[in-house]
User: Fold this.
Amino acid sequence: MKCKAVVPALWTGFGAVALVVFALATASADPGLSAEEAAQERAALLAIMAQNQAPAVDAAGQIRLPDAAMLGAADAPVVLIEFGDYQCGFCRRHVLNVMPTLLQEHVVPGRVRYVFLEYPAERNLPASGEASNAALCADDQGRYWEMRQKIYANPMSIDAAGYRRHAASLDLDMQVFDQCLEQAPHAARIEQHVALGRQLGVRGTPTFFVAVSGSGDGDVRLVRRITGAQPLDLFEQELRSRSAE
Assistant:
């Protein structure tokens, strides 16, 4: 349930599970292990397998959030960070079906701050990077979230003509917007987001991190990682459990 998986991710995910399955078989057949040792090893291997398949797992580390689109109170106790790609169908499903409720129930009341980081699949889908730039061009005129919604809601219009139609419908200054589309001034900002995602081991989109305040101003401490377009109930559970702490 995620887009833009790359070869290392396939090995890390499916390959790791295959190795665990093989290890389970050999552990059970190893004559050098007592029955108790074999059971303990089997339990440990099953735990590894569950970790590889679990949609939400523990995360660790502290990061400083880059310049990015954010919604919600700056002092919200919980931060939900999304790495997303505009040509990812699962990202679209999350934005259109799950995000409205999360905004209404968690962001608007001030319990959660939402941060969207651009993570375009540039290698395979160059238009993804162009879409990120178009959204940030709209951000220059204070209409980032409206443009993001239009891009996701119109997947057949991932091109300059589509972005221009969206911009016109938002009453943007078209001369300024067109110049921004052509010059792509937000490339460094997008690359900063991509670099952070790679640092955190993001292999596909959407990938989310649930975080709390860190030790420094602008720093957050990662506590949970959610992979893929998971159902609303999972996000509700993860966010409420952190808000209650």
Notes: The beta strands are 56-58, 62-64, 69-71, 78-84, 112-118, 207-213, 219-227. The chain has two domains: 7-53, 62-243. Residues 7-29 form the longest helix (23 residues). Residues 7-53 form one domain.
